Amino acid sequence: MSESTPPIDRPGFFGRWGVWLGLLAAAIVLALDAPAGMTPGAQKTLAVTVLTGVLWFTGAVPLGAASLVPLVAFPLCGVLEVGPASEAYINKYVFLYLGGFLLALGLERWNVHERLALHTLRFTGTSPRRVVAGFMLAAAGLSMWISNTAATIMLLPVAVAMLDALGKKTGGTDDRLTAEGGTGEAAAEDAARHTARQHKLTVALLLGLAWAASLGGIATPIGTPTNVAFLGVWEKAFPGESLDRFSFDRWMLAFAPVSAVMLVLAWGLLTWNLRPAPGAAAVGRSFFAGRLNALGRLSTPEKRMLAVFGLAAALWVIPGPLFASLKATETGTEWIEAIDARGLTPIVQPDDSTVAVVCALLAFALPAGDGRGSRLINWHTAERLPWDILLLFGAGFALALAFKETGLSLWVGERLGDAVRGQPEWVLVGAVCLVMTFLTECTSNVATCSIVLPVLAGVAVEIGVEPSLIMLPAAASASFAFMLPVATPPNAIVFGSGRLTMGEMARKGFVLNLVGAVAITVLTLFWVRRIL
Predict the structure, then answer these.
(1) DSSP states of 329-397 as a string?
(2) Smallest Cα–Cα separation from 152: which of 217, 95, 92, 106?
(3) How far is Cα of residue 476 from the mean position of the Cα atoms in its chain?
(4) What are the tens digits of pLDDT across the range 27-57?
(5) What are the TM regions of this chain, as residue ranges (predicted)?
(6) Which of 8, 163, 275, 284 is the most buried if burial means most Cβ atoms within 10 Å?
(7) Which of 493, 507, 486 is CA-nearest to residue 55?
(8) pTM score, two decimals?
């Protein structure tokens, strides 16, 4: 018997030539004369962004390796020093994802995720459209009150386990066909159809989960940091005006319908061509009830892991709305001031990343109670962390920092202001939405809002337009970047599952980017402006 040999990579055209294409594109950016107002540092930042993006899209090098390009390129080009560039890779949000992934792995280790998925399927049934709708509604509802990242982390293990459970049930169609007298060729064709339809459902469900988390966040002032960034910029730009017009209830009245419309459009885009997998029609709720019965009662490790995850979810969900309601009363405000005076705010209202890491550490420390001395999470489990995705996050933060430090974001904002002067309102709002949507594909949406919104405030005053008419859709559009994993944390998290490709995300995300820009333009002109 001959020795087995390691598999040989056989990349396609872009895989073979992606590195050279990226270097060529970056060289062209550097060779061209910089546009008026663009600094040399901004031009170099744009070149590094192009190189990194080409490597990501072509897959010429592994994702994690491509994500290290900004770490070395920015210091070599003099754009950022090594310290700030490397600090971007240990951003607090990286630790939020790290802790969240560890909790998800803990759920998977003790099979809690399968139990949750089976309960979900009992409720939704196996219709692909209903399954996607159910998860999108859950993600959007959660992200109205907690961070989009936390909402995605909470639901992703359930979604993946549900896909696995559904695949196991409908995957035996080819065996049944053969047993009933079908030919091997027919069985193979049936299996291929099943695989293709199952993958379509996988892509639709995971993208729907990520998109819904981003879309739900715009419905409340606390749902996403870009909303808070807008309020902060508005207060500084127009100090004489009250923020009462942007109260919690008025904001929800204005933007909850926007969120709902976008959810319906996104759901339609993802599910219009979904068909049940072969054999799915025979799958009833009784099957999932039977699977739950087969799992038996919750074991001690399951209960403890579920308790740790529930603690994390509670600490992500409760403090924000609780403090918001307390601030609305005089007594509550006094309590908050007393807590702050004693230095207890970080404990009473911990940061999301702190919650994730503390609960992950708790899972490492707590005995599983399985009679073998195991812990809820051990390092063998942690070795399965998607380290390449964590590096991807770091690359996104490094790019965002470079955009800010070199003035590239400001340059884009100023060019936008120059372009929209004297244009009709619908052109003005539409252009702002398009630019913000695609700009935040490769920059931090919060940083972009913090830089571009003040520019738009000045432009609005100069051309005699109500500032909120362009600032509000700009802030909302910053959450409408659906193409790239680095665009939003939810995108990166579902991409980290390894069940969809960057091309699949980019193709569908590009369409929703355009749809979102049109939708937010229309809704701003005909609804939001009437409320706010």
Answers:
(1) SHHHHHHHHHHHHTT-HHHHS--HHHHHHHHHHHHHHSB--SSS--BSS-HHHHTTS-HHHHHHHHHHH
(2) 217
(3) 15
(4) 999 999 988 889 999 999 999 988 988 887 7
(5) 17-34, 46-73, 93-110, 131-156, 203-230, 251-270, 306-324, 385-403, 446-464, 470-488, 509-528
(6) 163
(7) 486
(8) 0.66
